[in-house]
Amino acid sequence: MTTVNVAEAKGRLSELVARAEAGEEIIIARAGHPAVRLVPAVAQTRRFGLLDVRVPDDFDSPLADEELVAWE
Q1: What is the SS3 string spanning 17-50?
Q2: pLDDT confidence of 53, banded at 50, 70, 90?
Q3: How far is Cα 50 from Cα 48, in angstroms, rounded to an integer?
């Protein structure tokens, strides 16, 4: 974990973002006190047992007519 002040973070933002993307946790401090934590934004997948279930963002959108199935 690395701590930098706001002024330093402004000048090194690209480097700090790259380090956070690589998995390092960066703390940005204001007046010597931690203000924010810079970590990678990773899409998380929830696991239900052994199945890898992914729900698409449009799961609740209406189906097109050709996608409708007649239930008998």
Answers
A1: HHHHHCCCCEEEEECCEEEEEECCCCCCCCEECC
A2: confident
A3: 6
Note if the pTM is more than 0.85: no
Q: Tokens 């330093």, residue?
A: 8
In the sheet that holds 26-30, the strands lie side by side as: 2-5, 26-30, 33-38
DSSP type of residue 66: G
- Of residues 69 and 36, the one with the higher pLDDT is 36
Domains and CATH numbers, the chain: 1-41 (3.40.1620.10)
* Residue tagged 């810079």 (tokens): 38
Structure tokens at 65: 């007519």
